[in-house]
UniProtKB/TrEMBL annotation:
Pfam families: zf-RING_2 (PF13639). The keyword Metal-binding applies. This is RING-type domain-containing protein. It comes from Aspergillus ruber (strain CBS 135680). It comes from the Eukaryota. Residues 46-88 form the RING-type domain.
Length: 134
């Protein structure tokens, strides 16, 4: 019943997300300067790297409303776990189906490739002769 070309990842299993899942998820990014005050206060430090969150920091607001450097949270989500490192809310449901590529055509054997090259060289030579270049 399922399409063999589509791989549907688990929506509940622990583990990291794919970078593409994070990119396509609705988790807005802000530049510190543009962050609207009525959305709550900007934390002074990033909970992951403990660096200051400044007005030129780019950060992401997670669905749980936690604010973390974009670079730090993306790395966390893609290498550690698809969850908020702060409150442990999970985002495994953001995993999207992956289209599994059809198998590529058989690679040409090295021998055949050599033959192909020899054939091509012979053809070029013949063609040059035809044009009286040799
Ligand atoms: Zn950080
Ligand atoms: Zn959170």
């Amino acid at each position: 019943m399922s399409d063999p070309d589509i791989y549907v990842p688990s929506q509940t299993e622990k583990g990291p997300l794919h970078a593409r899942d994070v990119e396509q998820a609705r988790m807005p990014c802000f530049l510190g300067l543009d962050y609207p005050d009525d959305n709550g206060h900007l934390p002074e430090t990033c909970p992951l790297c403990f660096d200051d969150m400044t007005h030129d920091s780019i950060f992401r607001r997670l669905p749980c409303n936690h604010l973390i450097h974009k670079q730090c949270i993306d790395k966390w989500l893609c290498t550690k776990d698809g969850s908020c490192p702060f409150c442990r809310e999970t985002f495994y449901h953001l995993r999207r189906p992956i289209v599994v590529r059809e198998s590529l055509p058989e690679p040409i054997e090295d021998e055949d490739k050599d033959e192909l090259e020899v054939g091509r060289a012979a053809f070029v030579l013949w063609w040059k002769k035809m044009l009286c270049l040799v």
